[in-house]
Design brief:
This protein has 117 residues and is of the alpha+beta class. It contains 2 helices and 5 strands; from the N terminus they run βαββββα. The model has no long low-confidence stretch (mean pLDDT 86). Pfam families: TnpB_IS66 (PF05717).
Length: 117
């Protein structure tokens, strides 16, 4: 499977804690039953567990599901805590989240225009 995920129509983050023992079927059930979304749509769904140092990504590519599981060696993700919420993310927000940055920060720190120091 070689897919360019920058062209995916929707990126959803499942906020709160997910049981990371769940596999593809369990995560697809959460997407359908808890959030009334279609796991077969052109969407990426992101899940994280208690420790926030790992996440799973679920994607349907047209002929089957792909699941990415990543554990960070250092640091933790700034994962939103609301257990009953799903959020739609932009590509930029996805990059920020996976780099360990907060989704709540609305803009970058302003650069000084006066000079170097």
């Amino acid at each position: 499977m070689n897919h360019n995920f920058t062209s995916v129509q929707n990126i959803y983050i499942i906020c709160g804690k997910t049981d990371m023992r769940k596999g593809i079927d369990g995560l697809a059930t959460i997407i359908q039953d808890s959030f009334e979304l279609d796991p077969y749509s052109d969407s990426i769904f992101l899940f994280s567990g208690w420790s926030k140092d790992r996440y799973k990504c679920l994607y349907f590519d047209g002929d089957g599901f792909a699941m990415l599981y990543k554990r960070l060696d250092n640091g933790k993700l700034q994962w939103p805590k609301d257990e009953n919420e799903v959020r739609s993310l932009s590509q930029q927000e996805l990059r920020r989240l996976l780099e360990g940055l907060s989704l709540q920060q609305s803009k970058a720190i302003a650069k000084s225009v006066k000079g170097i120091f």
